[in-house]
Amino acid sequence: MKGGSGSASNIKFQNIEMDNVTNPIIINQNYCDKKKKPCKKMDSAVQISNVLYQNITGKSASDVAVKFDCSEKFPCKEIKMQNILLICEEGEPAKALCNNVQLSYIGNVNPRCNSQKYTN
Question: Which domain of life does this protein belong to (predicted)?
Fold first, then answer.
């Protein structure tokens, strides 16, 4: 299996001010170096769970400030977002893209995922 296997859990990102950061909040189990084409579908064997994003504010250099692109086989579980406020550099609302993730929100969280496509 490409990319190895294992787990990443009990991780905290707290009290962070973002300034001109591309994808300030991101978990990407389907990463592909766009310089190496064509990109093949990745089969991650890493289970990501119990991750807390807390008190994170600031400006995103990209339209997508929150990106959770988790594996279908090993979806991200118990991802918590608490008191998040991220906007685009121009002051416009930022976006969130989420696939195969189990999310919970505490307090004010912006942006939020519209759909999480979580099936487990």
Answer: Eukaryota
> For the residues 69-88, what does the mean pLDDT come to?
95
Number of domains the chain contains: 1
Contacts of 35 (CB under 8 A, 6+ apart): none
- Judge if pTM exceeds 0.90: no
Three-class secondary structure of residue 12 per DSSP = strand
Domain that holds residue 54: 5-110
Cα–Cα nearest to 31, from 46, 16, 17: 46
**Residue 71 within a domain:** yes
Cα 49 to Cα 16, 77, 81, 95: the distances in Å are 20, 5, 13, 23
